[in-house]
Inverse folding.
């Protein structure tokens, strides 16, 4: 119960950036605010930090109402997407800034500051860079400096706004793991904003999914991935095929549901590309006949575009390269696909597993 | 030529470089060389004698002190104006922004006459100030005011792009680390705009040393009091003392090169800092 957000709303002109957000973030957890651009995730983070004032509602840190408290008294560490380092200061001075500007009464001595800065720099593996200037560092190093700088003031809460957004894929991967490691060491209550669901799934303890200024779902990575609360969350957490089928549970053979001729009780099925299996000869008899219309190798997996003959729907399958090789398929070849797992969203606004 | 030319897909290097060098030679190098050569007719002793003349020294003193004071005051005003024009949005902003360039655009003699009229005994401001004992026109203060007028656009125009490019997130980062407004100004904004500010003031200073037309109208042009170097050069020319004028001119040239060197050093410092994103 470290950060509580009650009825927070915010408008920019006539645009509702946030509509009545209620949220509780666990103490010591690493929470991801996940959503597409324009979902209000950054605005929410900036309101928590105090960089933006909400039009209404309140923000509490550890039970204390801090809605009207200015940011420089909140004791938050904030990490920006584009690092926001002080260009005219050395790395050492950047990290020491928050301590150096304290009023004399609460400022640590020079020796203590030095010791503390070097401890933080060694934690981010940049001890040797202390005398350099930010312009001499790579993007990943700059972001580590920014993190060390934020941690130097011993914040109550660490907030990160798309911290890996400006970095290239490999550095991004490294920093993600490193952030997770860092969090496991410090257990500082942390919130980070991202639009990358993979990043949220990999790093966070808790994921808050935002869409159009409202919270769609809050839960652990497993919960939001395996039990998405609505079609938006399902679609946002991974690739999805929309496939039309009949909902009669007693007639659940996939081959039946594809008969588009029967419109009665037809429903939309949500199928992940990796829950589709391909075969040349349909041994189980459950397969649906389709044509290969495209394929593209992506690392160790292959993305295959299929067109179902009967319903004329396009389906995307994502299979292992090994099985793709074994199938030995070419463009326009005939193939059978079998749906291993599917869900549908029924009239009562709840999900049901589609029994294959 | 081959050595300094790096390959470019766009044609025209030869002819443009040729034109640039011709321009530089005809309009800059040859006249300046002629001036220096003319002054070189003098022996070292004569040169030192001319330059250490009391009247000459006092002219250099007046020129440098008034240009220096004007650069500092223009620096203060220029900073405030540049800040207001870049950081805020208000009605009439574009008109004020355009008006900054007026001192560049109007003939300096016109500006000098306008200032002289304004500060003369019967002028709009002179009427108020003269009875208080502030005789601006005809005094050193008049020279400084004229040079502020000439110099402040340099400060504004060099500062504006730098203030505009200040990263809002950097300031937010400072505040999130606990900085108050004073600390944000002194430790974040000020160091960031410092090189540009110094460059602007150096430009205003360099312009002020060479300024002639504006000053001769507002100043009393009295030797040992309000006589500036450019005016002394003109007076020497009028008295057919060509070598003396050339000696002063060469000295001014040397000083101008030194200033140019300082300004360039400041600008490269600025660029080096800007390159770091």
């Amino acid at each position: 119960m470290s950060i509580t957000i009650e009825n927070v709303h915010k408008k920019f002109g006539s645009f509702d950036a946030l509509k009545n957000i209620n949220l509780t973030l666990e103490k010591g957890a690493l929470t991801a605010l996940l959503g597409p651009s324009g979902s209000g995730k950054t605005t929410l983070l900036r309101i928590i930090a105090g960089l933006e004032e909400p039009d209404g509602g309140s923000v509490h840190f550890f039970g204390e109402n801090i809605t009207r408290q200015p940011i420089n008294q909140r004791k938050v560490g904030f990490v920006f997407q584009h690092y926001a380092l002080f260009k005219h200061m050395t790395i050492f001075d950047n990290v020491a800034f928050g301590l150096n500007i304290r009023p004399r009464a609460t400022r640590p001595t020079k020796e203590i500051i030095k010791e503390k800065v070097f401890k933080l720099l060694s934690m981010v593996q940049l001890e040797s860079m202390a005398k350099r200037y930010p312009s001499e560092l790579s993007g990943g190093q700059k972001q580590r400096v920014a993190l060390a700088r934020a941690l130097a003031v011993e914040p109550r809460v660490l907030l990160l706004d798309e911290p890996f957004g400006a970095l290239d894929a490999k550095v991004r991967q490294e920093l993600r793991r490193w952030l997770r490691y860092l969090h496991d060491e410090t257990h500082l209550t942390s919130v980070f904003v991202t639009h990358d669901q993979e990043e949220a799934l990999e790093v966070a303890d808790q994921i808050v999914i935002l869409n159009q200024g409202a919270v769609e779902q809050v839960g652990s990575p497993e919960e939001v991935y395996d039990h998405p609360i609505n079609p938006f969350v399902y679609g946002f957490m991974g690739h999805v095929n929309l496939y039309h089928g009949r909902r009669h549970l007693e007639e659940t053979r996939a081959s039946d549901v594809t008969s588009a001729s029967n419109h009665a009780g037809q429903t939309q099925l949500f199928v992940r590309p990796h829950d589709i299996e391909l075969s040349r000869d349909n041994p189980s008899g459950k397969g649906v006949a389709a044509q290969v219309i495209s394929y593209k190798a992506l690392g160790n997996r292959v993305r295959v575009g299929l067109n179902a003959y009967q319903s004329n729907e396009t389906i995307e399958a994502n299979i292992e390269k090994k099985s793709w090789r074994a199938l030995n398929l070419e463009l326009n070849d005939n193939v059978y696909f079998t749906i291993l797992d599917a869900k549908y969203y029924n009239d009562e606004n709840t999900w049901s597993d589609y029994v294959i | 030529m081959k050595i300094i030319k790096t390959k470019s897909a766009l044609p025209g290097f030869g002819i443009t470089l040729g034109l640039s060098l011709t321009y530089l030679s005809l309009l800059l190098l040859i006249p300046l060389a002629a001036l220096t050569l003319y002054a070189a007719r003098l022996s070292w002793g004569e040169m030192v004698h001319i330059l250490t003349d009391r009247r000459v020294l006092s002219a250099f003193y007046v020129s440098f002190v008034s240009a220096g004071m004007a650069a500092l005051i223009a620096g203060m005003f220029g900073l405030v104006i540049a800040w207001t024009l870049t950081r805020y949005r208000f009605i009439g902003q574009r008109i004020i922004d355009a008006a900054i360039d007026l001192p560049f655009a109007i003939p300096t003699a016109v500006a000098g006459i306008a200032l002289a009229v304004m500060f003369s005994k019967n002028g709009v401001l002179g009427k108020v100030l003269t009875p208080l004992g502030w005789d601006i026109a005809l005094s050193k203060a008049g020279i400084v005011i004229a040079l502020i007028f000439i110099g402040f656009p340099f400060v504004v125009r060099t500062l504006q792009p730098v203030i505009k490019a200040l990263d809002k997130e950097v300031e937010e980062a400072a505040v999130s680390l606990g900085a108050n407004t004073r600390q944000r100004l002194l430790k974040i904004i000020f160091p960031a705009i410092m090189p540009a500010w110094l460059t602007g003031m150096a430009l205003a200073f360099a312009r002020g040393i060479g300024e002639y037309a504006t000053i001769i109208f507002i100043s009393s042009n009295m030797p040992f009091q309000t006589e500036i170097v450019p005016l002394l050069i003109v007076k020497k020319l009028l008295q057919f003392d060509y070598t003396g004028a050339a000696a002063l001119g060469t000295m001014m040239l040397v000083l101008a090169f030194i200033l140019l060197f300082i300004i360039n050093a400041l600008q490269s410092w600025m660029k080096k800092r800007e390159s770091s994103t």
Observations:
- Residues 47 and 53 of chain A are 6 Å apart (CA to CA).
- The radius of gyration of chain A is 25 Å.
- Chain A is about 25% helix and 35% strand.
- Residues 247-264 of chain A have pLDDT under 50 and may be disordered.
